[in-house]
Amino acid sequence: MNRTVKCVVVAAVLFTMIGAAAIAGGAGEAQKTGKVTLRVAWWGATGRNEKYLKIIEEYETRNPNITIVPEYQGWADYWSKMATLVAARNLPDVHQYTNNQLAEFHSKGATISLEPYVKNGTIALENWNMTMVDSGRIDNDLVAVTIGITGPAMIINMSWAEEMGIDIPPFDASFTWNEFGSYLEKNVAPKLPGGAYAFGDWATCENYFWTWIRQNEVEWLDASGKYAVPEKVLEGWYGLLEDYRQRHIAPPLAFTMEDSSKARGDNAFNRRRMLIRPTNANQAKLEQKYMANPSDRVEFRRLPMIEGRSNPAECLITSALAIAANSKYKDEAAKYINYFINDEYAQTVYEAEIGVPGSFTVQEMLKPKLDKVAAQEFDYINLISSGDVPPTKPKPAGIWAFDAEIQQMNQRVAAGEVTPAEAAKEIIDRANKFLASIK
């Protein structure tokens, strides 16, 4: 079938449930004919989907016994459908997670260990950044292999800063949160025009909060499965941003709410109303693309850290491929994963779409072909994944679903409805009720 026609057909029946009998029959037919049909699923928009489809088409050309059925949706719809499919034990043979959701689905028996495939060489991880590899481990067992790593970052409009005479620290510099607040208050805010802010509201960035948890060296859950983040850590989180607001170095709630409704290209960072934007590193190249002033240059800097730490301990966010426990073609699925993560053609097409690849070989191949912002993203992710940074373990089941509550509580603090201390107490109570409800 022509790939274009095939995509139309797939789009019409996206994630249609395939009966268990049909799957079993397909396995039997494969044994007779050597033909295999793999289902491969991911989330994405048009540009990303086109890249995946091109990668798949090449794989089918090289492997005429393999037919790949692509299944893709936007972010929210993808997870809704995946929840349905895991309950039906009908997940696509190869499918994609971040380490926000990985433990949630793994706890339901969705994925298998990839260790045997690494040991026998089917999935090759030589010359890889092992800190990035470890982002796909649960209880020291590799259950997903990264196709791209990102992490929380501060991105800065360097051109605007230079025009205003603001001295920006070097690429690998680290501040404490208190030092950074003082720097913004004394060295940045006084030079900004009216209505502009030094730093954005980072409470909407769930990976900033994850990093805060790591900086405080606390666990999400205790041994009994109850919420284990201490009150003082939560109070510190809400209090820190409120302090930045009160000092007028981060924007008030009304500014943040208005800005969050704007399309890329029209947000405060794009239009020189915010000097430093809190976001994930893989978003920087898109922000650069949509800067209102095309000559504005975007660069990365690390997050601030708490007193007493040797580094900010930014969490690493992986987008990773896993093999479904219900797959009838696990060996072929492993071969496809290896092709996707290591093959020069596949990685050239993918072009670090969703983050920095774990393979140093692939990084070295891609980096000279990238623009300056995308190339610095590689440097940034390798920086925050080196040294004595603790490994980023996937969030326990239930934690990802509760992230929205953490963010919404910040709005109540910003609106003056609750104090940071009251917010901390209420979050713990809500978290434990939520966790009890999903057991």
- The gyration radius over C-alpha positions equals 23 Å
Average pLDDT level? 92
Total number of domains: 2
How much β-strand is present in the residues? 5-15%
CATH architecture of the largest domain: 3-Layer(aba) Sandwich
Tally the helices.
Answer: 19
Order of neighbouring strands in the sheet with most strands = 8-9-7-10
**SS content category:** alpha+beta
CATH topology of the largest domain: D-Maltodextrin-Binding Protein, domain 2
Summarize the structure in words.
The protein is globular, with a radius of gyration of 23 Å. The strands form 4 sheets. Strands 8-9-7-10 form a 4-stranded mixed beta sheet. It has a 3-stranded antiparallel beta sheet with strand order 3-11-6. It starts with a helix and ends with a helix. With 439 residues, the chain is an alpha+beta fold. It folds into 2 domains: 3-149 and 321-382, 3-Layer(aba) Sandwich (D-Maltodextrin-Binding Protein, domain 2); 152-314 and 398-437, 3-Layer(aba) Sandwich (D-Maltodextrin-Binding Protein, domain 2), CATH 3.40.190.10. Helices cover 46% and strands 13% of the residues.
